[in-house]
Design a protein that fits this description.
Arc Repressor Mutant, subunit A, two-stranded antiparallel ribbon, mainly alpha
Length: 204
């Protein structure tokens, strides 16, 4: 597997490696992991994170401090709040794990990290289905099987990573349009996956 949530952004080479066991334990916490996932695409304020996660302000602020101390997130902006004071905006400094880093992880660490994301993806898709997400005329749902070699798998992973980056740009544009039109954007669950099938299935 060559692309994985929780890793290095290409334009931030100073980000710490995720090979330290402390960082794996840090991201094993569901709240801290969710904060990193959410702030990977755009900056979030603590208030927004409280509303999105359903956790208390104290829990969110504690998680932010821990992630900031390990340089997994960073403060990117301070701006005046609507009721006075300052609003602090945080963004993840790491999101995509490079292949060289991934291959240095143990089998147990690879399986644990992958299993966690697959479980969250399943939860997201189940919630979207229950909420009627399939009714949107522009929803996308693609299930396919393809036969690839190692080079083809690398191309597939790179293509999905590029697609994710384009969607992040689409989000930024959507936020600007909604701001100009005084509208609220809606949350979209996104899943981009490519995992080799078990050998016994692939040989059938």
């Amino acid at each position: 597997m060559k692309s994985q949530a929780d890793g290095t952004l290409a334009d931030k080479p100073s980000a710490p490696l995720l090979l330290d066991p402390r960082l794996h334990r840090l991201l094993a916490n569901p709240l801290r992991h969710e904060i990193v996932m959410r702030t990977s695409a755009r900056p979030w304020s603590p208030t927004e994170l409280v509303e999105a996660t359903g956790k208390t302000k104290g829990h969110v602020e504690k998680a932010l401090r821990e992630l900031k101390n390990e340089k997994l997130i960073e403060l990117v902006e301070k701006r005046p709040g609507p009721k006075g004071g300052l609003v602090y905006l945080y963004r993840a400094s790491r999101f995509i794990l490079q292949s060289e880093e991934w291959e240095l992880l143990s089998d147990i660490e690879q399986a644990s990290a992958t299993g966690k994301i697959v479980a969250e993806l399943y939860r997201d898709m189940a919630e979207a289905l229950e909420g009627g997400g399939y009714a949107h005329p522009d929803h996308a749902l693609i299930r396919d099987h393809r036969r690839l070699d190692d080079q083809g798998m690398k191309r597939c992973a790179n293509t999905l990573t590029k697609a994710w980056k384009e969607i992040v740009k689409a989000e930024a544009e959507s936020m600007e349009r909604c701001k100009d039109a005084d509208e609220q954007p809606f949350l979209v669950y996104l899943g981009l996956t490519a995992l080799p099938a078990p050998s016994e299935v692939a040989s059938e």
